[in-house]
């Protein structure tokens, strides 16, 4: 397949990109930003997306802030054009509080995709199974977007609106994703037909330990069970005050499966997704707890 016809512009900096978006929209064009292109280009090739204009953010990589990965106190700040691979290999910078992010990158496609795809591109694309979208909810990410009226901060809880729909406006450029909730006991796991395929269901979890024998609580985030990634409060309630171990983790997985109403589609039935949810949540919780115990 080939994409529908489009015109092409290169932005020189963030202000130029915002200006181009405004100018093009004013004359009736339908511009779309492109960075790594690992999601947009395949959709264009299948005619699932038909932007009339592409605005390339590639030259913005010259700005160190757009590719920076750094700790800022208890927060982790990642420039919008950082690649998945750059994050995957930045474990020392992330520290134990955020290394779930680097460990999760092994689930993102294959090495060529990770080497070109960008953090912000994945978050703004808003795929319900995208690892970055689950991590954003798990770790209380703040998406920093810049537009004609300046910068604004979008909490991850307000970011994802449905199928490939996010809170970023058409005239805005995401410049940074900031993770504000350290999680030394956390894990992300998923199931796909083949490694590198889109996940049918994925689960991201974190555990907060009250002491060596009891949990203060935790988080459970699922992808592939609804139009957007979601936290599952019914499963999180099971963890609060619980004794960590296989019995609790199985109970939490069962609570998560009971709380969702996943769709039937070509990848699997709703019942199949519930079974996957039960297994993946328990597996992720075990991995998260063992990481904290053995660290």
Automatic annotation (TrEMBL):
Domain FAD-binding PCMH-type: 1-184
GO molecular function, one term: oxidoreductase activity
Key words of the record: FAD, Flavoprotein, Oxidoreductase
Family matches, as InterPro entries: CO_DH_flav_C (IPR005107), CO_DH_flav_C_dom_sf (IPR036683), Diverse_Substr_Oxidored (IPR051312), FAD-bd_PCMH (IPR016166), FAD-bd_PCMH-like_sf (IPR036318), FAD-bd_PCMH_sub1 (IPR016167), FAD-bd_PCMH_sub2 (IPR016169), Mopterin_DH_FAD-bd (IPR002346)
UniProt keyword annotation of Flavoprotein present: yes
Superkingdom of source: Bacteria
One Pfam family in the UniProt entry: CO_deh_flav_C
Protein's UniProt keywords contain Ion transport: no
Annotated PROSITE patterns: FAD_PCMH (PS51387)
Record protein name field: Carbon-monoxide dehydrogenase medium subunit
Organism (species): Saccharopolyspora kobensis
Record lineage: Bacteria, Bacillati, Actinomycetota, Actinomycetes, Pseudonocardiales
């Amino acid at each position: 397949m080939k994409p529908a016809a489009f015109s092409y512009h290169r932005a020189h900096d963030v202000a130029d990109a915002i200006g181009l978006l405004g100018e093009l929209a004013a004359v009736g064009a339908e511009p779309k930003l492109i960075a790594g292109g690992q999601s947009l280009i395949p959709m264009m090739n299948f005619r699932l997306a038909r932007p009339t204009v592409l605005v390339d953010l590639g030259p913005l990589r010259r700005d160190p802030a757009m590719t920076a990965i750094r700790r800022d106190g208890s927060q982790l700040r990642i420039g919008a054009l950082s690649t998945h691979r750059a994050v995957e290999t930045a474990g020392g910078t992330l520290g134990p509080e955020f290394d779930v992010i680097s460990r999760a990158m092994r689930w993102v496609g294959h090495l060529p995709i990770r080497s070109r795809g960008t953090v912000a591109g994945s978050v703004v694309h808003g795929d319900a199974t995208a690892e970055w979208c689950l991590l954003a909810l798990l770790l209380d990410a703040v998406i920093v977007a810049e537009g004609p009226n300046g910068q604004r901060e979008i909490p991850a809880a307000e970011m994802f609106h449905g199928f490939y729909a996010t809170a970023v406006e058409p005239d805005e450029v995401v410049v940074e994703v900031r993770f504000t909730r350290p999680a030394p006991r956390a894990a992300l796991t998923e199931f796909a037909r083949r490694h590198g395929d889109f996940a049918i269901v994925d689960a991201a979890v974190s555990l907060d330990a009250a002491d060596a024998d009891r949990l203060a609580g935790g988080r459970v985030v699922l992808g592939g069970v609804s139009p957007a990634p979601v936290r599952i409060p019914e499963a999180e309630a099971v963890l609060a005050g619980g004794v960590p171990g296989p019995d609790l983790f199985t109970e939490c997985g069962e609570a998560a499966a009971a709380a969702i109403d996943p769709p039937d589609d070509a990848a699997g039935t709703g019942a199949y997704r519930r079974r996957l949810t039960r297994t993946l949540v328990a597996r992720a919780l075990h991995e998260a707890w063992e990481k904290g115990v053995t660290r």
